[in-house]
């Protein structure tokens, strides 16, 4: 039995990560509650054999231990774990994989007024950053309108600002999308795989063949759960993937996630329209060409189809998201496609 089929039958499945060899890792919580409501990491072989690791234990992550104070919120077997403590987020990694954030990342975003988490401690197998105040813009929904407005005021400051971050060009972004498609196909995760495959290839060609806009500092995983609002300041989380890229990369990814918020009801239709209007204004202020914004937005939507195919919480809306992503072609979702929430 294939790994994804087995994963979808596991009680308490929270999320899963596919591997190119057909195996997977996953996180579970006991749906019955009690002490085993704690997060547990699972490995699933390509043949569907399940191995559940003991709580907060992983031979590949020597810094992880059930004796650590705090709450385990992420455990990707063999790769990483995150423990939230009183004053910090502690990330545990394989020895030699724990490094400081990309040089210049905090400075680039801090220079425009965004708050980022300072590094409190780092070692060969761990990285600790300070906890930041506020709630995510995803959690706030329509109540986060002021946070979105403040982000829209600040983000154009990246245009023209010098940065020392490593380059991430259109070809690298196309490779990310192609890799997610390959994983989804390998695991049989997709409805209409042929149609999606053709659309992904066309989107990648448009990414690579089009004339790029001048690059800026980019987060590379910018979405509503990476942004905190405390009523006065916007904070930006997880700078691990920061790079120098076209401004349409972050804006397109953010627009795709805002569309997803609208589809799932995390934003009302009025809220969805308001946020997209703000982001359109950011694109104009940064001189982002419409063509590049459309292709990056479309590529992000297609990538999210593949990513969420492995997440159990998407089952109620993934088919609608696929249909709308195929029809939107980089523009705003059709109003009639959003009316049935």
TrEMBL record:
Which InterPro entries does this chain map to?
Answer: Kinase-like_dom_sf (IPR011009)
User: What is the name of this protein?
Assistant: Phosphotransferase enzyme family
